[in-house]
Amino acid sequence: MNTEIRIANNQDIPALCEIWKNCFSDSEEYIKYFYSDNFNRIKTYILTVDEKPVSMINMLPALFENKGASQGARFLYAVGTLKAHRGKGYMGKLIDFAKNQAEENGFALFLKPSNPALTDYYKAFGFDINSYFRLVSITPGEKFLLSVCETSPAEYNRLRNAAFDDIPYVKWEEEHIRWCIEENKYFSGKTIKFEFDGKEHFLLGYPEDKTLIINETDLSLSQLEQLSGALCNIFKTEMIKAYMPDYSCGEGERIISSVAYNAAVDKTYINLILI
């Protein structure tokens, strides 16, 4: 058997979809949607066996930003191997390939393990836990009206960068923000901005049954609790679960947000990682 690592091209997309569907629970419709909308802005590396793609890593560009100092970074997403080819070290070869690129070019690698059990797997390749979320559950107070408007990728990015500029955080290209907003809309979500406490705020969330899942907001936990009734009113939900930054929220379940390799800074606020 001949193995090779190479960058994927458009002709490989059906094989990439096959690997993805073999490894994760996403629908075929969503997988095709992801590649049709993103393939030209990302780099996907594949390991082939006798020219058939069997393992893949999707790499999305980002920056680790720390008070004006930047380090290039790549977010590793939908990392997987066909079940029939697991246990042969193919993913390890792809990860080592990505690590060599990172070392040669000075950028960081980061990802969110698809389940906590995989953390030790990535630790064996030199990845360390970089940051955590706090998953907070909120029972809303009285529902009331809050004036909100949906926001553009450019405006969301502006608000997001201003909100997190004084801490280490991951800064995304506007194209990635656009995709996150589109993906959120795909799941019947809204990306909104509004005024509260004399300041503009933003929130990206979607309803899952009767629960509002908030993937990102600059609201503090106390502010979120104050606005919980209004937000449930907007999203037609009865509960809230919010992924809050670990650095600012001491409540809720602590969940690994990312593991990173070759990162200049740890405890980085990382979100919009397609969770």
Describe the structure in your own words.
With 275 residues, the chain is an alpha+beta fold. The chain is built from eight helices and 13 strands. The protein has helices spanning 13-23, 28-38, 90-105, 119-123, 153-164, 174-186, 221-226, 228-235; strands at 3-7, 43-49, 52-66, 69-81, 108-111, 128-138, 148-150, 169-171, 190-196, 199-208, 211-217, 239-245, 253-261. Strands 1, 2, 3, 4, 5, 6, 7, 8, 9, 10, 11, 12 and 13 form a 13-stranded mixed β-sheet that branches. α1 packs across α2. It is globular, with a radius of gyration of 19 Å. The model has no long low-confidence stretch (mean pLDDT 95).
Give a quick rundown of the structure:
The chain has 275 residues and is α+β, with helices and mostly antiparallel strands. The protein is 30% helix and 37% strand.
